Amino acid sequence: LDLGVLISGRGSNLQAILDAIAAGKLDARVRLVISNRAGAPGLDRAREAGVPTAVISHKDHPDRASFDAALVGALGQAGASWVVLAGFMRIVTSVLLDAFPARVLNIHPSLLPAFPGVSAQAQALAHGVRITGCTVHLVDAGTDTGPILAQAAVPVLPDDTEERLSERILAREHALLVHVLAAIAAGHLTVHPPTTVAARARV
Ligand code: GRF
């Protein structure tokens, strides 16, 4: 898999991908990491791994479509054929989705369709659910709404804080994202535009 990874901040999911590749557990290459924020710590993680980086700020573009066109241009030039949104805090448009049909993945820290959008872990605590988790899904035009590829459940403990719960979910995110990418790389999971998911084996 030739990956383009889009980030906005910490980049721990990016790190999980880089570590899995380095360990020979994921047959993929990260062709480019793009951040919409210049100071994103994830950019250092990419540089550390010798992966090309780019900063493309949404603030330098008049609208979402032209921002996405810049992303598509950079991703295409780098040779990416799959795109992973790994803590990328921007809503993407059909400009990106049409350039990579059924080839854009997102990782989200809840069991979708519960708790889409920001602060999913706080939403779970506020709602009092006993089980939450994380989801890897294909991205469509909505916010955290695309076809689900895989999920992992994480119990909410009685004395959980947002921070502790987020930490436990995050550990599962890293494993789940790598698991899905490895399944795609191995041909165990094939996805067809616009929304059909064909799993040859359960992932
Ligand atoms: C993760 O919780 C991810 O699910 C959400 O944003 C966070 C990104 O964390 N979309 P990181 O930048 O990968 O460390």
From TrEMBL:
UniProt domain Formyl transferase N-terminal: residue ranges: 5-181
InterPro entries (alphabetical): Formyl_transf_N, Formyl_transf_N_sf, GART
Pathway: Purine metabolism; IMP biosynthesis via de novo pathway; N(2)-formyl-N(1)-(5-phospho-D-ribosyl)glycinamide from N(1)-(5-phospho-D-ribosyl)glycinamide (10-formyl THF route): step 1/1
Class of this enzyme: transferase
GO cellular component: cytosol
Active-site residues (renumbered): 108
Family matches, as CDD domains: FMT_core_GART
One BP annotation, GO: 'de novo' IMP biosynthetic process
Transferase recorded as keyword: yes
Reactions performed catalytically: N(1)-(5-phospho-beta-D-ribosyl)glycinamide + (6R)-10-formyltetrahydrofolate = N(2)-formyl-N(1)-(5-phospho-beta-D-ribosyl)glycinamide + (6S)-5,6,7,8-tetrahydrofolate + H(+)
Record-annotated site: Raises pKa of active site His: 144
Residues given in the record as (6R)-10-formyltetrahydrofolate binding sites: 64, 89-92, 106
Binding residues for N(1)-(5-phospho-beta-D-ribosyl)glycinamide: 11-13
GO molecular function, one term: phosphoribosylglycinamide formyltransferase activity
Record keywords: Purine biosynthesis, Transferase
The EC number(s) this enzyme carries: 2.1.2.2
Pfam families hit by this protein: Formyl_trans_N
Coiled-coil region: none
Recorded family membership: Belongs to the GART family.
Function text: Catalyzes the transfer of a formyl group from 10-formyltetrahydrofolate to 5-phospho-ribosyl-glycinamide (GAR), producing 5-phospho-ribosyl-N-formylglycinamide (FGAR) and tetrahydrofolate.
PANTHER family: PHOSPHORIBOSYLGLYCINAMIDE FORMYLTRANSFERASE
Protein name per its UniProtKB record: Phosphoribosylglycinamide formyltransferase
